[in-house]
UniProtKB/TrEMBL annotation:
Involved in retrograde transport from early and late endosomes to the late Golgi. The GARP complex is required for the maintenance of protein retrieval from endosomes to the TGN, acid hydrolase sorting, lysosome function, endosomal cholesterol traffic and autophagy. Acts as component of the EARP complex that is involved in endocytic recycling. Residues 290-308 have a biased composition (Low complexity). The keyword Cell division does not apply. This is Vacuolar protein sorting-associated protein 51 homolog. Keywords: Coiled coil, Endosome, Golgi apparatus, Lipid transport, Protein transport, Transport. GO terms for cellular component: cytosol; EARP complex; GARP complex; membrane. The gene is vps51. Residues 46-275 form the Exocyst complex component EXOC2/Sec5 N-terminal domain. Transmembrane segments: none annotated.
Amino acid sequence: MSSATTPPDSDPNRRRRAHSMLKHYYGLNEEGKVTEQAESLDPCDINGPHFDPEVYLNKLRMECSLGELMDHESCMVKQIRSLDSDMQTLVYENYNKFISATDTIRKMKNDFKKMEDEMDCLSANMAAITEFSAHISGTLQDQHAQITKLSGVHTLLRKLQFLFELPARLNKCLELQAYAQAVSAHRRARCVLQQYSHMPSFRGIQDDCHVIMEKLAQQLRQKFRDGGSSAKDLSECVELLLQLDEPAEELCDKFLSHAQSRFEADLQGLEAELKDSPVTDTGGDLVQKTNPGSNPVSPSSSSTTNPFLSPTAGTDILEFIDRGCNEFVSSLCLVIASYQELFINRPQEGELASKNIPEMANGKLHVFVDTLAARYFSLVERRIQEEKGVSDNSLLVRALDRFHRRLQAISKLLPGSAVPSQGTEIVVRAARERIKQYLSALQTFYHDSLTDVRQALAAPRLSVGGASASGGGASSKDATPSLPELLSSLSNFILNQLKSVLASVHLFTAKDITFSNKPYFKGEFCSQGVREGLVVSFIKFICQSSRQYCESAGDRGGSTPPALLLLLSRLCLDYETSTISYILTLTDEQFLVQHHTPVTPVTALCAEAREAAQKLLNHYVKVQGLIISQMLRKSVETRDWVNTIEPRNVRAVMKRVVEDTTSIDVQVGLLYEEGVRKAHSSDSSKRTFSVYSSSRQQIRYAPSYTPSAPMDTNLLSNIHKLFSERIDIFSPVEFNKVSVLTGIIKISLKTFLECVRLRTFGRYGLQQIQVDCHYLQMYLWRFVSDENLVHFLLDEIVGSAAHRCLDPSPMEQSVIEVICERG
């Protein structure tokens, strides 16, 4: 029952299945046609026409068991019920369709009855109209030929009237300056007058019209030459003159000459603006910078301001480009469009088609545009060159964007013109020049920062006692910053300045800038311009300028503070370890650099920075070693070692050497790590020195000093040196404090040794050398990586003094220790 009452639309699958079963029963295909099927003769085929129920049942009883018969019965019952349900559904559906079809047929019957009445009425009307038309045709048939003849005569009379009134009409148009109407009227009558010019009356009309049109052409030429007309009036004049058969080439020249005069005024205005505008200051810093010598904790304490931030008077570059685009470029586009409409795109008819006017006019237009654009571009480049201040980059970028955007209109109006590509080259050159200006500004900033660092290093350190004696305690802000603070400030200033420059340069690649995404600009600009031309060049400049401080000759190398050498070496080392990678990664991410062309690898820059750091540190060791060596050399050369008194204390210069070495140790320790030392012996500070090193000790107990003894001693000493480890005095140092101090002490003691070898000593002079060397040994061993190095060099110094001594009587070790401890 539920299937019978369910609407057919509620179960489309069931309805589709029922339709397919009916089609299958009636032998229909999908198109509704009867399919030819072979009839089955099997009496057991329940779907065949020869089905026999008795035979079918007997066959089932013989072949199937009781269970199979029961199953077969259940299946048959289900199929019967399913077919009954499908049949009810089809009957219900067809019943509704039959009812709907009956209603539709009844409605159509009423509508067609009304339509039949209307068609009968229409047929009657058409018959009446046909009868009336036949009656009229019959009535007017005799007069039709006469009416046609009179109409032709009337038309001819109107034409003749137009021809006879043409001179007066032309004069009237000439008075009213309706030149277009006059030319149009004359062109309509020109062919007829030419055809009947042999007749006197028409000949007179033709002559009068010719005189009038010659006068009109003269007025048009005069209006064309005056130059006071607008572009629209000028175009109208050219069009009318072409219609009057004026030479096209002459008109092209006159049109371009007239436009030239207008462009001259625009270009002269731009040039006058260039002469009046002041030149902007040259490149410098971008932002207000803090003096690295000031307290890094409070950057606001510096009052140094950037002179390049001061506003400049005059028209800025954006206004200049706007004026050029609005006046010159817009007028040029208008002239190109008008010229093309008049001479190039104009349909050529008759004799004009054989003269090939468009090609001639196009060539003249290209020459004219290229000449004017070259002058305009020269003015734009002059104005761009005046933009040397790097404080604000947005105006220049916007101006270049507007300049590039407006030139694209010329490329659309005049395909094949070189003007857009020339303008693009100006934009690219301006961007490159801007990169150079920013690089110069960064270099200037770097030099200024180093100057501030040198001033901070040269500033005297106020002690607490001196500050209180002067009337008040020195505040923390007045204290000279330490080397780590100076290094941190200098590194941060340089990095922040470089980031500020990159932010300014990034304006060239903004999404709203038309030329930023062009392949001829972005790839080359980001890769070769920003990365190589700015960032890599600045990093190389830092390394190269730092290496210049290592020059021993010249004012710079001679006056460079050692602390600055140490600070720069640490700066270059920091660049090698982390800063260079960070800067280049930041640049690549910010500018989406794609390395289509070869670029400088990070490893090459890091190697260059490490080389600079190594050279600076080596030079620092050399300078500090020479400073101490100079003190030792003067102390040896200025003393009379033969006639000196018996030593009672350590010489002051040795105390100064230990103090300076301690100061250097503290200074280097502020920037570099400790390093690795060899294990110290427990009696390093108590080591004693003999008059003769190693094998020379046997001579101490000789009863007499014979000439042969020194010979044997020298031989033994030289043999000992052959088997001892060679000491390289000026070998490169490592980046740690121990290695740096070892290099300085090696240079100092080697100088002391060579100076001793050049002097002659008395007994007390030798003893003084013993005291001095013991004092140095007490303190210097803790600074070096291998204490044996200090012991060896000091042994050599005492041994050399003994060889140069006239009376080699050494001082007792206990006395030496007492003097050194008291000193």
